[in-house]
UniProtKB/TrEMBL annotation:
Residues 394-405 have a biased composition (Polar residues). PANTHER family: GLYCOGENIN SUBFAMILY MEMBER. SUPFAM superfamilies: Nucleotide-diphospho-sugar transferases. InterPro entries: GNT1/Glycosyltrans_8, Nucleotide-diphossugar_trans. Keywords: Membrane, Transferase, Transmembrane, Transmembrane helix. GO terms for molecular function: transferase activity. Residues 380-405 are annotated as: Disordered. The keyword Transmembrane helix applies. This is Nucleotide-diphospho-sugar transferase. It comes from the Eukaryota.
Amino acid sequence: MAIRKVPILPYRRGSDASEADFFDIPDEPCWAIIKRQLRHLRTWVVFIFFVLFILFLRREKPPPPKVTHIDYSKVDWTRYAYSQYATSSPYLCNALLTFDALERLGSKAQRVLFYPENWDVVVESDRDRDSQMLALAHEKYRALLVPIDVQMVKAGDGPSESWDKSTSKFLAFGETEFDRVIHIDSDATILQNMDELFFLPPAQVAMPRAYWQLPDTRQLSSLLIVLEPSFKEYYALTAAGEAVTYGQVNSTGATTGARYDMELMNERYGDSALVLPHRQYGLITGEFRRDDHRAFLGNEWEAWDPERVLSEAKLVHFSDWPLPKPWIMWPQELLADMLPKCKVKPGTLQESGCKDREIWKKLYDDYRRRRRNVCKLLSYPAPNWPPREGPEQPLSQDQESQPLS
């Protein structure tokens, strides 16, 4: 019987080794392996899907959708309005910026502008800035112009105008042709459409909390008021405003400290107003300069994220006293102390974590840019710092109304 030969196993392609190293990694350069794998279609498909996934994560988030239970196309927008008042040139421009933001964000509601009755819309020269801005409010932003008698409030003009004129916002309660009116302080900037506030549950007023006073004081802030017009409320508030203007007296006849619109509103509606969430409707710029954000966040455990906070906010109020308002340039000596600090190694070349500072400066820069573009006005020069011993005289209206060259 013939002896059967045992077959010899073949060598593996590309290798001089025998079956002893059959499962070894082939002696082949890594780049050659990569090139060979890239020839396969499935590799490219996986790579493309990976790139698309990264781009999806980095995409810009769309604005929040409108309230879904309201059919905005069927709303009679002639029944709703935003109101502004202007008793000086700076505040007239601020009102225009508010109307411009509402127009840009697609608000359908009406706009109402209260202004001194001694102003007019007849543009007599290219330096007649007040008349130009009034005409712009009416023609471009379709604002209803309502002349008012400003004798009810104390005199004042220019960048140092006091809060005494803030009681003019009570005039919005007299606009009874509207079902609801939203009054916004003009030293604020609108970031998102707020038309959903017109459809809140019935309430005489709705206001955000003055959260920066918590926990010591629980008070409503008048920087945003959603109100139901009423002649009864109008007469009651204006009467209280006149008492403040002429002598600062309270209901008992005793002389008090200064009380303005915020105090008067809290006296009347502090226990009955609908409270709006301040994260969306009451954020102040000074929050980006704070180290302790518990009052804003409302808890002890949530982490402060300035980018998320800004993305949620629909309204930001400029409040960084003693820094002046955004239409006045900053005193450099004061700015150095007030500027938001970076989180890591502040004041050094290696500083980082400066997102609060970037957002804070962007809010001011954007406001000043829009002021130049919409009103064609430059900012007031920075006041002296430290202040002089005597009170400074405000700039004249002619200085404020000087157009850009």
